[in-house]
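quick one: glycine bound model?
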Amino acid sequence: MSGTVAVVGGGVIGLSIAWRAAQAGWTVTVYDPRVGSGASWVAGGMLAPLSEGWPGEDAVLTVGAASLDRWPDFGAELERATGETLFTSQSSMTVALDGADAADLRTVADWLDGRGYHLDLLTRPQVRALEPALAPTIRLGLLAEAEFAVDNRALVRALRSAGEAAGVRFVAEAVTDPDGLAADRVVVAAGTASARLRPGLPVRPVKGEVLRLRHRPGVAPAPSRTIRASVHGRPVYLVPRGNGLVVGATQHESGEDTAVTVAGVRDLILDAQALMPSLGEYELHETTAGLRPMSPDNLPILGRVSEKIVVAAGHGRNGILLTPLSADAVVAELSGSPLPEAEACKPERFGTAATDTRMRMG
Ligand code: GLY
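yep, here:
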């Protein structure tokens, strides 16, 4: 392809689109005052479309699984191109602390089985044998061998460097009028800011607080795989990261607020310690908060909204997971042949608000 593309937003979604579009022959410029500083920087990096699935959410499962399938080749290509190490664990395990959680795990396992994904349910001794750091009170585990995790910050670095090597230009400026940019096509991939740039786009912020912990000498090692659970009804996960763990994440609908609160940190520590009792001995290295760009149906919004503008927004809790699929979908859209696997993600599903009338009628 030839022509110019402006990408508004330098998170993992915008960066991956820029990289792939440059590889496809477009002349690409990324606009972002602080590349990779938003939700992409805060994220935990777990890829869990199967074990986070729930009966009725078939489209979310299908789209997430399609992106998970792309991740091994996408990540390997980036690692080769940049020398970064992206993969931080090879599987995930969801654990149940009480009878209701165990019933939920069985429900998910049965539902996934019916869709061609077999995940093993593990007994208490099997869970402890695989992950000795976990609490002996855990009743049941659901092992997802294919659900690995990615170092989100290494991913930001790798995408930026691979983009630069492919010829992507970076402009450290905020954009207020995407239509006014001098480019043949503009991709709006600005996380929660996308709703300001494209009024009517149904993307809302959901704050998440995240901790980064470091292992200390003499303390039991962290789990080797991602561990997920619900504790007192609150989701919590532990993602292996180098010499430590990422612990996430709270969920608050509080506008653009990104303050890390005492209560948020307290809840995360208490909930994570219920899974892994030795966690209190780790160093509390960093606390951060970011804004997830949520869509109404938990699917991303990928596609054209006007002659000039393509959006890649609304990735919610799954931005890292959905990075390869989003890049493929947007580059396919730019070349005029939309990706069939991203059909459920079209902006038109939200009716009149997000797309130009001309587009809707055409
Ligand atoms: N990616 C998990 C979360 O948003 O908490």
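The chain has two domains: 4-43+152-202+296-361, 92-145+205-294.
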